Amino acid sequence: MSETHVIPLCIPNLSGQESKWVTEALATGFVSTAGPLIEEFETAFASYVGSRYAVACSSGTTAIHTALHVLGMGPGKEVATADFTFVASANPAIHLGASVSLVDSSRNDWCMDPSLLEDWLRKRARVGKLPDVLMPVHVLGQPADMNEIMRLASEFEIPVVEDAAESLGATVTSGGSCRQVGTFGEFGCFSFNGNKIMTTGGGGILVTDSEDLARKAKHLVNQAKVDAPGYLHDQAGYNYRMTNLVAALGLAQLERLNDFIEAKRSIADRYNTAFANLPVCLPPETAASYSTYWLYSLLCENELVRDDLVNRLNADKIQARLLWRPLHMQPYLTDAETVGGSISAELFSRGVSLPCSTQLTHQEQNRVIDTVKAFYQD
Ligand SMILES: *Cc1c(COP(=O)(O)O)cnc(C)c1O
Predict the structure, then answer these.
(1) Using alpha carbons only, what angle is made at residue 81 by residues 123 and 289, rounded to the nearest 5 degrees?
(2) Closest residue (by CA) to atom 10 of ligand 1?
């Protein structure tokens, strides 16, 4: 490859058994939402993260939608989620007619700040108006502080749905053992979109330890179809089930997930070492957490430097991207209650994501590193 090919930000790695699995699935004729691989994938996924049950869905967004529906979210209900996240964390609640409130991030892990959450919950408890669901988001591969968030959830008796879409495989040390993100709350939701750490093109899954919640979720994603002769449906369900073809891809990718995590962490290591003396803030990893560094991102001094750096990288044919505009700055969410908001605004104004595909070569990564270093030396 020439020295000047474009280095993509984060692309799928499909060089394993993916085509073999999909071809085999095609040969069986099971292409749709009936087929043996869906349950096989659910079982394998649940076992990987250490959950009792998994329900495979058409996307991470539909997994979140299903989880919130099962927990009764609708008009008059309130979901407290992270302010600093991708919009898909908030949209399902809104589609259900619930309101969202947006809790700012901590500087420590860029995820929902438990001390801010605690102050707010105490204030809300005094007026008798607690949110109905807490939805922390594990952003960019980095776990939220689930020990603290679960302590608050249990004190205030609020169910938790974890948006773990970006952080499959990340773990938190809790009570002396290591637990996967997504296994702390009533539900954990994951995404297999094209840019996620493992991908099925599009797809998602929810996990839970509750047989009852799993049964309800599975029912809902299958059009709420009752197992009886004739078309019998006991509520307005969704067509949110994963297909057999997608599950085939999922099984092939899951086999490689540990390798993907290792690759992401080693990319992060090389960047962190190379940038140690630059005036940037490196991505977080706390003592109790193990990040997958799904999307390697650092913080520049300010917005002007951020824009200059992104322009410089793009000019050198290196894809780089801004972090999310916080939800409280999204035009359709300006009415949402915002708890804090200055940290998320700062992450947005300073953050840049760098190329970190699992198949990124050292040579390519050196090109990124050289450009970033040259930018700061010029
Ligand atoms: C990707 C993502 C989702 C949605 O997953 P899709 O599979 O794209 O629907 C939800 N939340 C976060 C934080 C995400 O990054």
Answers:
(1) 100
(2) 88
Note the pLDDT tens digit of each residue in 119-144.
Answer: 999 999 999 999 999 999 999 999 99
CA distance 233 to 288: 45
Q: In the 8-state DSSP scheme, what is residue 355?
A: -
Span 216-245, mean pLDDT? 96
- Atom nearest to 85 CA in ligand 1: 13
Which residues pair with residue 239 across a beta bridge? 222
Atom of ligand 1 nearest to the CA of 204: 7
Residue 87 is classified by DSSP as G
Strand, coil or helix: 161: strand
Q: What's the CA gap between 82 and 149, in Å, rounded?
A: 12
Give the Cβ contact number of residue 162 at 10 Å.
30
pTM attached to this predicted model: 0.97
Q: DSSP string spanning 279-332?
A: SSBPPP--TTEE---SS-EEE-SSHHHHHHHHHHHHHTTB--EE-PPPGGGSGG
The dihedral through the CA atoms of 188, 74, 92, 81 has a sign that is negative
- Coil, strand, or helix at residue 114? helix
Phi-psi domain of 141 (left: phi exceeds 0; alpha: psi -120 through 50; beta: other): left
Report residues whose beta carbon is within 6 angstroms of any ligand 1 atom.
59-61, 85-86, 88-89, 137, 163, 165-166, 191, 193, 204
- What tens digit of pLDDT does each residue of 76-117 get? 999 999 999 999 999 999 999 999 999 999 999 999 999 999
CA dihedral over 175, 54, 38, 295, signed as positive or negative:
negative
Q: What is the mean pLDDT of residues 9-23?
A: 96
2: pLDDT strictly greater than 90: no
